[in-house]
Amino acid sequence: MTQTEPAKTRSGPHLVLLTVYAVFVLAAGSRSLVQVATKFGEAPIAYSLSVVAAATYVAGWFAIRRAAAGSAGIAKVMLWVELAGVVVVGVLSLVVPSWFPDDSVWSKFGSGYGFVPALLPILGLLWLWKGRAAGSTEGDR
Amino acid sequence: MDALTPIGFIVAGYAAFVTIAAVVGVVLKAPRPRWLDQLAWMLEILAVVLAVGALAGWSSGRKPESLSTFLGYLGALVCLMPLALQSMRNDRSTWSAGVIAAAALATGVVAVRVMMVR
């Protein structure tokens, strides 16, 4: 065992990803909690999808931490799931607006959050791809 | 326009400045300088001033659109930067400046949201 430094202290672009994910856990989590607790009946589909988005960000945060420690499998799956969620919900919000009387986190591809929700999984996948191309997480220094 | 509006503009503008300074550090691949931490703490002080002002406005009768959203934004406004700085306490690498950039940007966005929903 040559690894003496804990993975969580390793530096790299994943630190920024983890920060943005943490912000989105907070933003999407609180938003969905408020929506579900106070006005769930107004837009049940949209608010349920907000809960799904919040859960995805929690899972994404843990998955990126694991990927930074060298185990990228779960992160790859989670990031693709997240990207698919943004695309599917984004398309549905445009094609079937009656399902979305109020916006969910991923409505219109995350336009309410400056499209960061659409950009985030793409950046995560690029980081994974770059890390693999550079030989695991060697490019993180 | 009340007394808090210029403070909101100052917080948002200063957050943008800290974000740009931190991004420049990442682009230059320099270790995170001490002065960036000082800029970030200054932003935190401004954020606390804005939060206190918004709370004062609320206690003097101003009604936010949604109280839970308003209080949630206030919590995020004052907690984001200390959490980011604490998590990067022992890391002075280039990418730790990226964390400060993300936290400063988020603080600026939340400051604008506070001004909108208060």
UniProtKB/TrEMBL annotation, chain A:
<keyword id="KW-0812">Transmembrane</keyword>
<protein>
    <recommendedName>
        <fullName>Integral membrane protein</fullName>
    </recommendedName>
</protein>
<keyword id="KW-1133">Transmembrane helix</keyword>
<feature type="transmembrane region" description="Helical">
    <location>
        <begin position="12"/>
        <end position="33"/>
    </location>
</feature>
<feature type="transmembrane region" description="Helical">
    <location>
        <begin position="77"/>
        <end position="100"/>
    </location>
</feature>
<feature type="transmembrane region" description="Helical">
    <location>
        <begin position="112"/>
        <end position="129"/>
    </location>
</feature>
<keyword id="KW-0472">Membrane</keyword>
<feature type="transmembrane region" description="Helical">
    <location>
        <begin position="45"/>
        <end position="65"/>
    </location>
</feature>
UniProtKB/TrEMBL annotation, chain B:
<feature type="transmembrane region" description="Helical">
    <location>
        <begin position="97"/>
        <end position="116"/>
    </location>
</feature>
<feature type="transmembrane region" description="Helical">
    <location>
        <begin position="40"/>
        <end position="61"/>
    </location>
</feature>
<keyword id="KW-0472">Membrane</keyword>
<feature type="transmembrane region" description="Helical">
    <location>
        <begin position="67"/>
        <end position="85"/>
    </location>
</feature>
<protein>
    <recommendedName>
        <fullName>Integral membrane protein</fullName>
    </recommendedName>
</protein>
<feature type="transmembrane region" description="Helical">
    <location>
        <begin position="6"/>
        <end position="28"/>
    </location>
</feature>
<keyword id="KW-0812">Transmembrane</keyword>
<keyword id="KW-1133">Transmembrane helix</keyword>
